[in-house]
Structure formats: structure tokens, C-alpha cells
Amino acid sequence: xxxxxxFPATLAQLLCGQTPKLYIVGYGIDAALSTKTIGETYITxxxxxxxxxxxxxxxxxxxxxxxxxxxxxxxxxGQLGVDNTSLASVYVPTAINVSVxxxxxxxxxxxxxxxxxYTQANELIGxxxxxxxx
Length: 134
Fold this sequence. Notes:
Blueprint: E1 2-7, E2 10-15, E3 22-27, E4 38-43, E5 50-56, E6 59-64, E7 69-73, E8 90-95, E9 105-110, E10 114-119, E11 124-128
Antiparallel strand pairs: 1-2, 3-4, 5-6, 6-7, 7-8, 9-10, 10-11
């Protein structure tokens, strides 16, 4: 399956298939591309097959076919869900420890600085910016 995304004066293409590889092109501010520059990144250190990519402002979360989540990018509100008390940006995909459940994660969604994961047991888990008590 091929999706074409059109941007002013450029064309980007996302291909979905059986290969557990992820290739990202864009602006690398706050480690969103695993670099600090404009360019491209080929993500290789995620086990299993990548089945979902979600993103917020300057960060990504990936779900693999094993139900594991990995994130990287800006973490100023804890939106990466990683053990990082300094809230510093993370430049490599890092496993998210969702220890509050033993159920398989089936979906993940990101907002501007928040994430929600839905499990096979109908649990909803959230992390990130929480100034309004959500």
C-alpha cells in the first residue's frame, strides 16, 4: 500500500509492508529525526515489525507487532513516557515502560505533548502534559 502526502513544492511517500524498517525525512528540531539537523534518518533499532507510527509536536511513538512502544524526540512534558527525570530530548528510539498493564498494546495516539495507549484488555493509559487534569 502506498500513501502520497503532498506538501508545498515537495512530495513525500510512506510505504507500508512487511519490512521492519522506518525511514523519516524532515526537520530534526528537538531530536524528532534523531539528529539536530534538517535531513533524514533511517531507524533500525526497533525489534519486530513497525505497525504504527504516531507523532506529536517534535516527537514520535512507534508500536511494533509485539505490542511494545518506542519513542524519541522532545520530552519537555514527559510525552515520551521514558524514564528521564531531566525531561531532556531523547535522540534514539527508547522503549516505553508501560508497567501498569500486562495486556498487549493495540493502539497509540499522540496529541501535541501527550500520548494515549489502548490495550487488548480495553485499558486506556496516558502520559505527558497534564495541566488540566486529563
